[in-house]
Write a structure and sequence with these properties.
The structure is a single chain. By secondary structure, the protein is mostly helical. The chain has one domain. It is built from ten helices and two strands; from the N terminus they run H-H-H-H-E-E-H-H-H-H-H-H. It has a two-stranded antiparallel sheet with strand order 1-2. The longest helix has 32 residues, at 231-262. The protein is globular and about 65 Å long.
Length: 263
């Protein structure tokens, strides 16, 4: 492995670092959206602390995975295979794989959890009668702090495995990967409160974010089965949806200002 000074003086290493930071930040958006939605269900005095704990756990998990590269490499080796190969695609090969590695199992489990969580949150947002019944029974409205941290930790594991395997595929230099992870998680920490407050103050954005989580969960499940959806398509769709919602918010603000000026 090249020395640290050799890496610092190597332009290619700097290019790899910048590229990896951007990639890690983009991959961290999914993690951050989930943390924002989940912590917004906590009492206001606990939200910031829960976000910091959740993001700190993400950093610890990522650095821990990077320190065990041999173990990490083993996560991609198949641990079992089902006898049925699935339908045959146009190229003559099975349409999806049924040989599963630990990485595949982690992604499938995380995807199922995300789909369940997002569906449950959408149900509570849409079904007002169910919410009224809960209030009548005096059920706790706020999420328990410990339960929130456990759920954040579970998804941190999923996103950390995906993030670090992506980093390993982009560079062979451990210091570059570690610096990129620290910078990306630091940016997540800075952006967590503004993003969570923005989501909390705009109900339509909450529904859009839950839709993102549904899509991400389905993508993780597909990836676990060997169906690899290019991440560029996913983030392009998210960016386009965010742009449309931004235009809707600007339109609503303009209408409200016009009505206010009319009085």
């Amino acid at each position: 492995m090249p020395s640290l000074m050799a890496l610092i003086s190597d332009p290619a290493a700097w290019a790899a670092l910048i590229t990896l930071i951007v990639m890690e930040v983009v991959l961290g958006v999914d993690n951050l959206v989930f943390i924002s939605i989940l912590t917004n269900k906590l009492p206001p005095e606990n939200r910031t602390r829960a976000r910091r704990i959740g993001i700190s756990l993400a950093l610890v998990l990522r650095l821990g995975l990077l320190s065990t590269l041999a173990f990490l490499a083993g996560l991609t080796h198949p641990v079992f295979e089902l006898p049925w190969k699935g339908p045959i695609g146009e190229n003559g090969h099975p349409a999806f794989e049924l040989a599963f590695s630990w990485r595949d199992l982690v992604l499938i489990a995380g995807g199922l959890f995300l789909v369940w969580k997002a569906t449950n949150e959408i149900h509570h947002s849409v079904d007002t009668h169910a919410s009224d019944d809960l209030l009548d029974k005096k059920a706790p409205v706020a999420l328990n702090f410990g339960a929130a941290i456990v759920q954040i930790l579970l998804l941190d594991i999923v996103f950390s495995v995906d993030s670090i395997l992506t980093a390993v595929g982009m560079t062979d230099h451990l210091p570059i990967m570690m610096v990129a992870v620290i910078v990306a998680v630091g940016l997540m920490l800075v952006a967590s409160d503004p993003l969570a407050n923005f989501i909390n103050n705009n109900p339509s954005v909450v529904m859009l974010a839950l839709g993102f989580l549904l899509m991400i969960g389905a993508t993780l499940i597909a990836d676990g089965f060997g169906v690899h959806v290019p991440k560029g398509y996913i983030y392009a769709a998210m960016a386009f949806s965010g742009l449309v919602e931004g235009l809707n918010m600007a339109s609503r603000a303009a209408d409200a200002k016009k009505r206010g000026g009319g009085h």
